[in-house]
Design goal:
Layout: H1 9-12, E1 19-22, H2 29-37, E2 42-45, H3 63-70, H4 74-79, H5 89-104, E3 108-113, H6 120-123, E4 128-133, H7 136-145, H8 152-155, H9 157-170, E5 178-182, H10 183-188, H11 190-201, H12 229-232, H13 235-251, H14 266-288, H15 290-302, H16 306-324
Parallel strand pairs: 1-3, 1-4, 2-3, 4-5
Length: 325
């Protein structure tokens, strides 16, 4: 429950039922977020995981530690939000949504969360959810391109985790507080799907939601963006992904490849995990340089030294930002 003792003005401005866009990373959440943000009534925070990542099973994060953690949090720093240190944790997180609404001068606000999204109910018991799903084979492939996985067998793990988390969460929600959207339908029939989303949000659809291509790096919906796995994955890779996700894919209405099922032996699983670690290491070295990667490892695992670690993280953030431009 929210502690309402000693409420100040910021604390009384409570957003009772915010909206959250949830789903696996690389499922099209950025695209849908841009569409939502281009509605004249909607403000939308991207990558809102900093609101839930540190929440323990009981109680709330220690505020001093949380402030310190945010000092080098690249995504949080880009928001321009300020920290009101007079607030308790739930009201502090709520204040970020208020600040987003104020920045954009819009009436409604929401945020995108890819992990631990069940924890949002600890802060907002009446939160509402839009669940976006995409074909696991495309998600797994895309995770490799981001350097988050070294092969599709490990790349599909994020999708599996997010989908299982949603399966569990949705069972606790009243039917009028959630909706599901398929990325593939969003791409092929954007106006219809966005109209349904707007109905869920209680607002009218506007074509302005599809104007994001005019002022972002994202292009307009293109059917070529769906089922890329058919063109870009080998049969072996498709079988690897389906060895872990076939049942879940079928349950979500995705047709399987009809390739011969693959049983991953313990030996092959170990080999794939080792290859995954090596590929991710090479990706980090290519992006950040060997020296920075070694320094980051030393300050995290061998010789923890917070000031040095903050300097290293700042340098890595600066490099990462260049790749996002």
């Amino acid at each position: 429950m929210v502690d309402t003792a000693n409420l100040n003005k910021a604390q009384t401005d409570w957003i009772a039922s915010p909206y959250f866009l949830v789903g696996a990373e690389r499922s099209g959440t950025t695209l849908l977020r841009l569409m939502l943000s281009h509605h004249p009534q909607l403000a939308w925070c991207n990558e809102f995981e900093y609101a839930v990542d540190l929440i323990p099973e009981q109680g709330w994060p220690a505020l001093d530690s949380y402030y310190d953690w945010l000092e080098n949090h690249r995504i949080f720093l880009a928001t321009g939000f300020t920290l009101d240190r007079t607030l308790d944790y739930p009201h502090l997180i709520n204040s970020f949504l208020i600040q987003k609404r104020t920045q954009t001068q819009k009436e409604m606000v929401g945020a995108t969360v890819h992990r631990h999204f069940y924890r949002l109910l600890r802060i907002w018991p009446d939160a509402r959810f839009i669940h976006l799903m995409r074909d696991a084979r495309d998600v797994a492939r895309s995770c490799i391109s981001m350097g988050w996985a070294g092969n599709v067998w490990t790349g599909v793990e994020r999708w599996i985790e997010a989908e299982k988390l949603w399966e569990s969460l949705v069972q606790t929600l009243p039917r009028d507080r959630w909706m599901e959207v398929k990325y593939e339908s969003l791409i092929t029939d954007s106006p219809t799907i966005l109209t349904q989303v707007c109905e869920f949000l209680g607002i009218d659809y506007t074509p302005a939601m599809l104007s994001y291509a005019q002022d972002t790096t994202y292009s307009s919906p293109d059917p070529k963006l769906i089922e890329q796995w058919r063109r870009k994955l080998s049969e072996w890779e498709i079988r690897l992904v389906e060895s872990r996700s076939a049942e879940m894919l079928a349950e979500r209405g995705y047709a399987l490849s009809n390739l011969e099922p693959l049983e991953v032996s313990p030996w092959l699983a170990k080999k794939l995990k080792l290859q995954d670690r090596w590929a991710k290491l090479l990706f980090r070295i290519k992006r950040f340089g060997l020296g920075l990667v070694i320094a980051d490892f030393l300050t995290r695992r061998v010789i923890p030294f917070q000031p040095w670690q903050k300097q290293i993280q700042k340098k890595m953030n600066e490099i990462s930002i260049q790749y996002l431009k």
